Each structure stands twice: as C-alpha cells, then as structure tokens.
C-alpha cells in the first residue's frame, strides 16, 4: 500500500502547485478602494487651520446652551437636530 500513498502525495503536491499558480500576484488589487469614503468624510469634517468657520445662529446657540445647563438626570429637553 506504500505506492498508493506516494501517488496520493504526488497528486496532492501537484494540486497545491497548480492552485498556487492561480493566485493573484497582489490579492485584493482588483477590488475598489474600500476605506477611501471614510477617509474623505473624516477629512471633510475635520477643521484645518485657515478654514472658514460657519456661524452659529443665535437661536440655535441659545438652545444648545440651555440644553448643556440642564441637570444631568435628563430633566431637560434634548436639543433638536434640525439644520438651519
């Protein structure tokens, strides 16, 4: 039975070499650049020196300050998230 085991070993090695030849030289090179959208979003939302700072309208600032001054027990009203 030793020759049968040798043949199986040769077939297995041949299959491994064949499959290794089919591997892409750079795995994932053909995929879209995942992570670029996250990096772009973070860059857009990060203040850079020299960027213009958008003004905070009086009513929205007053509402935010009122919300921060409420007790921590949730006794106050949650600030609204509507955009001006």
Automatic annotation (TrEMBL):
<protein>
    <recommendedName>
        <fullName>Lipoprotein</fullName>
    </recommendedName>
</protein>
<feature type="region of interest" description="Disordered">
    <location>
        <begin position="48"/>
        <end position="84"/>
    </location>
</feature>
């Amino acid at each position: 039975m030793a020759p049968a085991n040798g043949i199986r070993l040769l077939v297995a090695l041949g299959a491994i070499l064949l499959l290794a030849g089919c591997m892409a030289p750079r795995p994932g090179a053909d995929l879209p650049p995942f992570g670029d959208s996250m990096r772009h979003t973070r860059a857009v939302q990060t203040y850079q020196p020299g960027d213009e700072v958008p003004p905070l309208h009086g009513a929205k600032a007053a509402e935010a300050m009122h919300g921060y001054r409420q007790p921590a027990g949730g006794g106050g009203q949650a600030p609204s998230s509507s955009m001006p």
